[in-house]
Amino acid sequence: MNLTPHSPFSSKASQLLSWGHWFTFANIGLVLVIALTYLAADSAPNSIAGWAYMLVTWLSHTSFITFCAFVLTVFPLSLVFPYPRHIRGMAAIIATLGILTLCLDAFVYYQQGYHISLQSLPEIVSLLVGMINGLSFATALFLILLVAAILTFELIVGNHAWRHLEQLKSYKFPRYATGVLVSCFAISHLMHVWADANNYFDITKQDNVLPLSYPTTAKTLLARHELLDLNEYQQARTVRLENATTNYQLPANLPACEFNAEPVEIVVLTEPLDTDNSLFSDKAWFTQTQLLVPTNTLDQYFNLVYGLPAYYRSTVTERRLTPVWNTANTLSISGATPFDYLEQDIEHSKVSFLFSPKMPEVNEDKNYIVIEKSIDKSIVAQTKLHTNLPYFSNHNGLMQGNDIMMTLLDQHFNCGALAQQTMLGNVVGSESVNQGVNYSQGVLIAYKKDRIILVNHDGSHKQISAKEGFHLDQKLDTPFLVQSIKRLKQFTGKASGL
To answer: Where is the Inner membrane protein YejM N-terminal domain (predicted)?
Structure first.
């Protein structure tokens, strides 16, 4: 094979290589737009440094993976099969498949909180099947047009770059753009090294946002050059969950609440519900199928009554503290529970708890929240919640027992300020980022969208999909865990001492 500089083969290969750079440059712009979905999926940074890191990482990382995709696919084809017309067609198809894969990963991350992997394939298939089954004609047409638009974009870009290659070669701005992207790549890694070494979580919490993201850490880089004390580093990064009986401290001058709305009865079933029960099939009732509860009964009851993680159960019950929201004639509890000291006149209470093996007779004029018994024997399980209150009807995804009382105070009794200052939960249906934290039997329970993370005292952990139950073999999101622990310890007065 003749590979001299003046051979037709070498000339075509050189031209295709130059064309490939411009083709990749155009795709970088498209990928940058799609990557905005990842940034919108999580909460925004809280500092200037966090925003700066997000910007440089968005520019550099998306450009890097796009360039790598070109090097691994189109570039070898250009050398082995240097026929411009065929290469442009194959490159358009390959790029379209790559862009569609990125769109799918962005969709999965936005909906579920994790990226595509072999472990997540069952959940992704289930998600896609459910989406396809529920597709309207307009949505299906939109998806078809989207695929056609991407393929058309790739064909137009490829043909335009080839036909105007000599003109494009005269432009100088690509070298400046390349310099900016390379600088952003270096800056992003240096910022992450600094943030990792100093536990600056507004930066490190962004580790898992973009696909195929493995930023340089202080441990891997500085320890390699003996510039980091590994013992000190590990001590700073260790997740500490001890002292579960730390003093329970609430803010002073809590806002008052009138509790003028209609009463609500919360029924907690202590036996499995009859599957033939047709009460909840009524249109007035809403069923939440992903209520995440501790399998420890006392922890579950504590979540419901106090709107707090069971991390505080020992101190609260030992000191016989009533819920802060429990003003006169507000709360009553009946049934076999550990909260006998909270009983009040059930006829005048605004929130009444009934712990019962069977569903009581329903009064259509009353407000109900019914929680089924969980039969799972692990640390945490999912069960069902049934209610005729409208505040829970717009919620998709996981929710916890803490969220029930938080939502009641905020939405039903108009006591949102009191709930925000005294409870650790989410107002159901109003959270832009679906995440929460709990604690039971010495295990930290944190969830983010569909991903549940369980962390033991010894640091061992596992990640599972909430919907399908399979294990997720993905990088542990340490910054998210640390932020979850800080939130968990909010009322101990020691949240900053992690």
So the answer is: 9-246
Q: Are 16 and 82 in contact, with CB atoms under 8 Å apart?
A: yes
Buried b / exposed e over 437-455, threshold 16 CB at 10 Å, is bbbbeebbbbbbbbbbbbb
Alpha-carbon torsion 37, 43, 47, 50, what sign?
A: negative
Collapsing DSSP states into helix, strand and coil, what is residue 237?
Answer: helix
pLDDT digits (tens, 9 = 90+) for 86-144: 788 888 899 999 999 899 888 888 876 777 776 666 667 766 776 777 677 777 788 88
Residue 290 Cα to chain centre, angstroms:
15
Q: What are phi and psi of 419, to 5 degrees?
A: -65, -45
Which SS3 state, helix, strand or coil, does residue 452 take?
A: strand
Q: At what angle do helices 8-41 and 48-72 cross, to 10 degrees?
A: 150
What are the backbone dihedrals phi and psi of residue 196, each rounded to the nearest 5 degrees, phi first? Answer: -65, -40
Given a cut of 50, whether residue 434 has pLDDT beyond it is: yes
> Side chain identity at 418, as an amino acid letter?
L
- 3-state SS, one letter per residue, for 45-89: CCCHHHHHHHHHHHHHHHHHHHHHHHHHCHHHHHHHCCCHHHHHH
Inter-residue contact 13 to 79 (CB < 8 Å)? yes
The predicted model scores a pTM of 0.62
Give CA torsion, residues 230, 233, 238, 243, to 10 deg. Answer: 110
Ranges of H-type helices in 253-400: 297-306, 313-318
pLDDT in tens, 141-183: 888 898 999 999 988 888 888 887 777 777 777 778 888 888 9
Burial tier of 179 (Cβ tally within 10 Å: 0-12, 13-18, 19+): exposed
Handedness of CA 101, 102, 107, 111 (dihedral sign): positive
CB distance 402 to 292 below 8 Å: no
DSSP state of 441: T
Angle, CA 315 vertex, CA 311 and CA 320 arms, to 5°: 130
